[in-house]
Amino acid sequence: MRKSALAAGGAALALALAGCGGDNAASGEFFGNIEQLANSASIQTTETGSSKITLEMSVMGQQITGEGKASYGADPAMTLTMSAMGQATEMRMVDNTIYMKMPPQQAQAMGADTPWVSMSPGQGLPAGQMAQQSDPTKVLDTIKQSGAEITASETAMLNGEEVSRYTVTLDPMQALEMSGNTQLTEQQKQQFAQRMSEVGPVPMEIDLNSANLPVRIAMDMKQIAEAGGMPGEVSMTMTFSDWGTPVEVEAPPRDQVTEIDAPSAGGF
Length: 268
Description:
Layout: H1 9-21, H2 24-27, H3 34-48, E1 50-59, E2 62-71, E3 77-84, E4 87-94, E5 97-101, H4 104-109, E6 116-119, H5 126-133, H6 136-145, E7 149-158, E8 161-170, H7 172-178, H8 186-196, E9 202-208, E10 214-220, H9 222-227, E11 234-241, E12 257-259
Parallel strand pairs: 6-12
Antiparallel strand pairs: 1-2, 1-11, 2-3, 3-4, 4-5, 5-6, 7-8, 8-9, 9-10, 10-11
Helix pairs in contact: 1-3, 3-6
């Protein structure tokens, strides 16, 4: 139900790039630029197809955690259960639709009279942004398109596994988009850009395993918060494990879903 008031050349090139960088992690060598890194890791992600995901966020003292599974490629799917302030929210993405099951009070505030709400990933809402961030290929493509630079690379240990850790600097405006805050007015964006020009690029870390699969992506967004007048720790870490794990996601029954529009979705 709907509440209307609610809110052969390219492939060859890609394979060539993957072949050039496919053994970097195993050989102890590192990628020299973000394009090589992103292309190789994205191809490995798509070929492997799926993983488990965990999410850890810190937003000015509030902790948000999440666990789930996702599949990647032409028809991505995801299931993720998040917890914040003692309350759980379940998110599913299937058939290019996001479904969220949240605490009743939040659902009612959005005008929903069903356990689930649905929205399009392209509506520009934080929920859609979260779904995009659960797919390493989307994150890597965004980083590549932003003109980010690798400033450091080293071998590190992650959960007992040796990884290649890259420190990347990201353009502040691109980092803002990745943070999920996509609903600023043009005036607010201009004010933010002016403040961020005094702070500089936003740091990220990307960990790749020996197969050049992404196993951890972390971003420190403290500078973004400070530029927005909200000082405090703001960070996000996504980890990807058990690559190739089976992923099955089903949409909730139609009579249990309210479709929402962006204006009435609020912060979601």
